[in-house]
Amino acid sequence: MSTSSSLTAPSAGRRPRTDTALGLAFILPAAIGLIAFYIWPLLRGLYLSVTEYNLLTPEVFTGTANYERMFRDAIFWNAVKVTVQYVVINIGIQTILALAIAVLMQRLTQSTLVRSIVLTPYLVSNVVVAMLWLWILDNTLGITNELIEALTGESVNFLSSTLAIPTIALINVWRHVGYTALLIFAGLQAIPGTVYEAGKVDGASEWTMFWRITVPLLRPILALVLIMTMIGSFQVFDTVSVTTQGGPVNATRVLQFYIYDMAFGRFQFGYASAMAVGLLVVLALITALQYRLTRAGQTDLD
């Protein structure tokens, strides 16, 4: 008895083995990336926002001067208006289409091939997508205008001052709607089939079950989708840069493009950092408000 006890009991004075060192080793690469590419740039941007800095000379502390300039800048407020217009169009259309596609996949087919096809546009880079649609919608040589001109005798300038933002929003809807639909589809998979069976027993129609069962039970997923698309929409840049360069005039000068232009076009890094901090604060407030209003942390499945 004493012999078996001595074999299993830990030796005196030795600490029990833990996986702390192994866990830290796995976390270390991600932690280095987080600090190098997120935390340090954030802290650096916060500091530069209260300075005047042009990359060639040392920073000069200016206090709140950049923020005061931001509130007086008419182009900044126009960029905010243009960005909000883009966000409303992009999120509204993308969410509705993604929900419809997800429900159709759930009800009609759950084929992996169909899911792959739906996701294909998302796998193409934003720059390539923008160049592709720039060619398709070209005012003189684009295939879309060739068809429109054959039917009506006139061409349409899709990147004019009035149509540019809706066009850019629809281009990004085309690219991202498949990914958003798959997120919603994953949420639909988590809804028990017994809930729908109970609805059919009660005589509920498909439309009634969609509004009374599907949408309420999808609330956490829809909240996640709205938060992600909201943040991504406010950060739109590459599509604008490739297609319109912020024009005509300032019709498509979204906030992210204006920040880029100030920083790398005019070397006003202090003012660009102040606008970036302002965008960060706005996105944080919107995210917190969305999370609270949609009760994203709660589910009706319990």
Automatic annotation (TrEMBL):
Localisation per UniProt entry: Cell membrane
InterPro entries documented for this protein: ABC_transporter_permease, MetI-like, MetI-like_sf
Transmembrane segments: 21-40, 86-105, 117-136, 156-174, 217-237, 269-289
Topology within the bilayer: Multi-pass membrane protein
Domain ABC transmembrane type-1 residues, every copy: 80-290
Chief location: membrane
GO cellular component terms listed in the entry, alphabetical order: plasma membrane
Record-linked CDD domains: TM_PBP2
Lineage top rank: taxon: Bacteria
Keywords on record: Cell membrane, Membrane, Transmembrane, Transmembrane helix, Transport
Keyword Transmembrane: yes
GO biological process: transmembrane transport
PROSITE patterns (alphabetical): ABC_TM1 (PS50928)
Family under the similarity heading: Belongs to the binding-protein-dependent transport system permease family.
The name this protein goes by in its record: Sugar ABC transporter permease
Provenance organism: Actinomyces bowdenii
